[in-house]
From TrEMBL, chains A, B:
SUPFAM superfamilies: CBS-domain pair (SSF54631), Clc chloride channel (SSF81340). GO terms for molecular function: chloride channel activity; chloride:proton antiporter activity. This is Chloride channel protein. It comes from Electrophorus electricus. It is found in: Membrane.
Length: 754, 754
């Protein structure tokens, strides 16, 4: 019996068809980033990927076979309980953020308002400006410092990270409790600091962290293991729960439980399962209900339950007519164009930041600068505007600024700038015709567009949903006001609020390019099903127009980090590629009974950072007989599951599935494991721990077919075999993500540089 | 080279673990029904199954490789166009049904009303009764005759059939134009005939037929081929479009486009694809928009667009409070119990019908009898009721019956019985407190429950949604009225309409047991997102309670026909079963170069009605090298693609993919193909036509793993190989559907009896 691992190579590789491929990509899955983009620490190097395919080894099968019908029932019930808990906690976190932000912003605006009122008559408004700038910068400084110093991954909205996680890329530290704490505090600071940001996007990330924490029954940050839900400590189950958490987050943010479910499914669940979807829906519903209940109790409106989400668009009672549909499509196109411009500017800005703004102090200073500029610009806009409106009795404005207006009037520009963005959006949707004049709306759109674009990508926790809605609502309202009011048809477009809504949809769609889920989220947020059709048309147009120029904002940020993100389908024209061309080869294989030293050497070899190893039968012609993961080998080595030469094999059977679960998901690095020289000479019997039935494909399988198998089953490794079941290569995520559809047909990305 | 096909068998089969299995189940996929259930002709013998996995043979790959980037774009655009057309046609059909039913029912009710008014004072109401009975029976007779004589598969709601189709079971004639015509006429007759049925369920079937017709660009019923969309003539594409059609049907029926998408996904799409879902959503939206537009124009309300669906629940403005949630859960439990009772009664009735009512004339007579009884019972209820209410000025009642009431009053019982069911549902939801007295509601619930139960399963086209809603609305309203009105909490339950809605949801959920999609459908139909949470709770409780007793109505009907329906997951406790135990073995294999006579003999052998044949390489040790389908072999035989002994193989290459598409989906039977004795000695080269990369699993693969692969990829055949890639068996749908979770753990069904 040979003691060294086999290198199985297939010699007939057709190098013409894969000219661009470097010969160094042999079987490693580690992704290194381009030297040009070292700064995006929020999505720093991914050590590995998630495995949605259970390793059905002997231990696993024995456990499953031991489990009774009742046992499975109990598991199912605990899944439901976990989803309920995810919903409750996510809802509570949303409440906490909402209440604290309202309180802090209220204090801030009251102080500044009092100051402005004091100085309006006597002169010296520059002191008010200074006060505003200082207050904003202070909030943002706190927010930026905690993010940069404690947990850089909590920066931004977290949606790209969650997209990656649900796609199967393991983003380090993304679902830790510490990240959640930093995220929540960061969001509060940045929203209270008056940045052009929203608190809705981060809810999705928060929900995902809650889900990961609750479902695993332990926390690394707290170093506490509650010894519950141990069955769920594997990628398959964890990812299902994280989907539920993300959905609960969307649901709490927008009061959109169905939208949340669709978001999770669009982004994550490759394998649609009825029970899973139903559980995700349950988590979403509980989340919005908890938020609703707590906020209602907080506002002393127990019997009403009228706050299903953090942002509430208010009630739209408007009907639309057939004649307006071309107008809506037109608005969708504008949204697509503006969204593409936004994304392009933000892309350049991100490149700039990656090159020059990567030290924490610089990042904090940039954030503070943006806060100061935002306050100054807002102040200037309010100061220079002379759009005075009579103050209404119903006190719909929270902080009406009189400034230079006559008594009994207030400054209309201030209702959009001197307010939390959520309130501004609602004002733009619902204030009656004539509340804002054209210049106010135009200037507001322009300034907010650039401010929001500058803000996204700062090292603060914040989302882009609300700023997008705000920009869109402003130009949408402008569009509505500009329409001729007296035409041959009944002036049903008397109310510009409808156009504000469509503009908001168009702008948001143009920036993030989400489709079905966004339609449903917006419909649920308006609470009016009739708007479904126009919103769909607007989003579709915005996506088509926007996609012509540049990708969506999240995809840009994911791509900038060369993450091997798998799309839904293989590129259309990739049928001429086969598994033989895309696979990594040669691949390291182990024997069923392998020498410890050999395994140690291979795992320690940093040049070939493999994660999955086919296991072959030495005796009968090197046929494939299983697949073993690096993580499993490490646990085996750590527990020294060795067969000594003299002893029988029976000695070995002592490791339980529990040992693997305890080590999950942070398996120790190979360097931390010490093996003596004597032990190196021992053997390891892998047959009990390897997955004996890995999925395989023949070499001639076309890329779309491989892709479909990979995506439908959420695989991490797919073994390529020849016609007598010998291993010839291994297809990994990176091999598939490399091919994408460019402007000129199929292109090959360079994801890894060894 | 051997000329006979190989029988590869695996001798070590573990017979202990599969004691119940008959030795006759060797590789055949044909499903024969139990002798006890011969009558359910609507779902008669299925010749075969759908294949969601493309056969990527050389012809296919060559075509795909020839196609340019632009070509794929065009295909994608035509997919969108088809979905748009599906939406438009489905919407138009819904309009047609709606308008014709309203007209016919209007005429009927006017005639009967006039007659009743004429005879109320002078006596002789028995003549009115007779008139009503005759009118109803006449309508129903026409409906029953066209269904029984022309297309029995058009009977019922069509939802079980569409569920089967989307699950992958090819139900014969289910998506033909003729079926659609019969369905539409049948629905009109049965609704106009006053049966306790709805026109909503059949819309799902109609949408599916439209989708199949439009996407294939031809009609068998019309014998017309438009020579368009030929690329889509295969199972994969067709099933995607049928999903879109079913969604469009739901959307038109309930004005619920998102609900439609979720219905399709819950029932069909095993592999979630973003673009597909977005297209399905597009079809749904277009469908509800078309309906809305046409009905608005028809009712001269062009600018309003206020009829998104066939049934419209009207606007609910009510809030619910926390204290009501236990009440809702209670209602859910009642709904579950009543639903289970309904299903149980209908199950017994169906068994009775299968045994004794299977001749067309009996079926027509039964339908007429039900119509007569329905009219009589309704008349009796109206006649005996003395629930008089003052006639309102706003004329909300279409046909107010005065009967024995004082002038200016009308009979309240008549608003529920003397009306189309859709109007009755709306009345129950929205009429103010005090419209109905307790006895009216109680009697109505009781009679309608039994009438609806008797009606479902008749040989008429009709749905069960509306009757369920009606029963539920009646007892829900009763529940609401019975609640103490003055309690320690604010009497927010003053309006019983809310309880009617919850009762309707509970009853419908208790009968059909749909979950996520039904919640969304109901939320969209009410147009009020706030009700999402209570409706979800109600449906969940109804499902849990109902499932304890008996399955859902559609599942009962599917099961009664022993259809090999694949659920979402393998039974939980099936890990101890492996591919070796579930597979069919021995399996017929062909050589790559096989004798025509051998192939003819195997295909003609009616005892072993195989549909997929592994192809093996004779030379190098009988390894698997491909999979060929019966349908492909038949096309090859028909076109006589033979290699004569003397000639070279090049002679053969003349068959195009087009030849396969033209034959799709109704491949000729083997008996229609004549092969001369000389030709029998020729050879056929299968290598170009077989799928060279079929999915395979090793023998030790556990059942859940096999199931997951099968379901995720929508397979029809899965080859089981040994460790040197030799064929040992074939797993088909029937092998997997056999195992299910019973009360006492894993049970094995007897689906096939050879």
């Amino acid at each position: 019996m040979a003691n060294i691992a086999k290198k199985v190579s297939w010699s007939g590789k057709n190098d013409e068809t894969r000219g661009e491929r470097t010969p160094l990509l042999n079987g490693s899955e580690e992704v290194r980033y381009n030297r040009q983009v070292p700064g995006l620490s929020c999505l720093a190097s991914y050590p590995s990927y998630l495995d949605y395919d259970n390793s059905e080894n002997q231990l696993f099968l024995e456990e499953e076979r031991r489990m009774s019908h009742m046992g499975f029932r109990c598991l199912e019930i605990s899944r439901w309980v976990i989803c309920g808990l995810i919903g409750v906690f996510t809802g509570l976190i949303a409440c906490f953020i909402d209440i604290v932000v309202e309180k802090l912003a209220g204090v801030k605006y009251s102080v500044v308002k009092k100051n402005i009122e004091m100085f309006t008559e006597v002169g010296g408004l520059s002191i008010s400006l200074l006060l505003w700038v200082v207050l904003n910068s202070a909030f943002v400084m706190v927010g930026a410092i905690i993010v940069t110093c404690f947990e850089p991954i909590a920066a931004g909205s977290g949606i790209p990270q969650i997209k990656c996680y649900l796609n199967g890329v393991k983003v380090p530290r993304v679902v830790r409790l510490k990240t959640l704490v930093v995220k929540v505090c960061g969001v509060i600071c940045s929203v209270a600091g008056g940045l052009a940001v929203g608190k809705e996007g981060p809810m999705i990330h928060s929900g995902a962290v809650v889900a990961a924490g609750v479902s695993q029954g332990r926390s690394t940050s707290l170093k506490k293991d509650f010894k519950i839900f141990e069955y769920f400590r594997r990628d398959t189950e964890k990812r299902d729960f994280v989907s539920a958490g993300a959905a609960a987050g969307v649901s709490a943010a927008f009061g959109a439980p169905v939208g949340g479910v669709l978001f999770s499914l669009e982004e994550g669940a490759s394998f649609w399962n009825q029970m899973l979807t139903w559980r995700i829906f349950f988590a979403s519903m509980i989340s919005t209900f908890t938020l609703n209940l707590v906020l209602s109790v907080y506002h002393n409106k127990t019997t009403e339950l009228s706050s299903p989400g953090l942002i509430n668009f208010g009630t739209f009672d408007l009907e639309y007519s057939l004649y307006e549909i071309p107008l809506f499509i037109c608005m969708g196109a504008i949204g697509g164009l503006l969204g593409a411009l936004f994304n392009l500017l933000n892309y350049w800005l991100t490149i700039f930041r990656i090159r020059y703004v990567h030290r924490p102090c610089l990042q904090v200073m940039e954030a503070m600068m943006v806060a100061a500029v935002t306050a100054s610009v807002s102040f200037a806009m309010i100061y220079l505007s002379n759009d005075c409106k009579p103050l209404k009795m119903d006190n719909s404005e929270e902080y009406p600024l009189q400034l230079f207006c006559a008594d009994g009037e207030y400054n209309a520009m201030a209702t959009t700038f001197f307010n939390t963005p959520e309130r501004s959006v609602r004002s733009l949707f619902h204030n009656p015709r004539g509340t804002y004049n054209l210049l106010t709306l135009g200037f507001f759109t322009l300034t907010y567009f650039f401010l929001a674009c500058w803000t996204y990508g700062l090292m603060v926790s914040a989302g882009v949903f609300i700023p997008s809605l705000l920009i869109g609502a402003a130009w949408g309202r402008l569009f509505g006001v500009l329409l001729p009011n007296k035409t041959f048809i009944k002036p049903i477009w008397a109310d510009p609020g409808k156009y504000a809504l469509m503009g908001a949809a168009a702008q948001l769609g143009g920036i993030v390019r989400m489709t079905l889920s966004l339609t449903v989220i917006l419909v649920e947020a308006t609470g009016n099903v009739t708007y479904g059709f126009p919103i769909m048309l607007v989003l579709m147009t915005a996506k088509i127009v926007g996609d012509y120029f540049i990708e969506g904002l999240y995809d840009i940020h994911i791509k900038l980090q060369s993450v091997p993100f798998l799309h839904w389908e293989a590129p259309a024209t990739s049928h001429w590629l086969t598994a033989r061309e895309v696979m990594s080869s040669p691949v390291t294989c182990f024997n069923q009974l392998e020498k410890v030293g050999t395994i140690m050497d291979f795992l320690s070899n940093t040049a070939t950072n493999h994660n999955g190893f086919p296991v072959i039968v030495q005796a009968s012609g090197e046929q494939l007989c299983g697949l073993i993961l690096r993580s499993q080998l490490i646990v085996l080595l750590k527990h020294k599951v060795f067969v000594e030469r003299a002893h029988s094999r029976l000695h070995q059977r002592k490791l339980q599935l529990k040992d693997f679960r305890d080590a999950y998901p942070r398996f120790p690095p190979i360097q931390s494991i010490h093996v003596s020289q004597d032990e190196r000479e021992c053997m390891m019997d892998l047959s009990e721990f390897m997955n004996p039935t890995p999925y395989t494909v023949p070499q001639e399988t076309s890329l779309p077919r491989v892709f479909k198998l990979f995506r439908a089953l959420g695989l991490r490794h797919l073994v390529v075999v020849d016609d007598v079941n010998k291993v010839v290569g291994l297809v990994t995520r990176k091999d598939l993500a490399r091919y994408h559809m460019g402007k000129h047909g199929l292109e090959e990305l360079h994801l890894a540089q060894m």
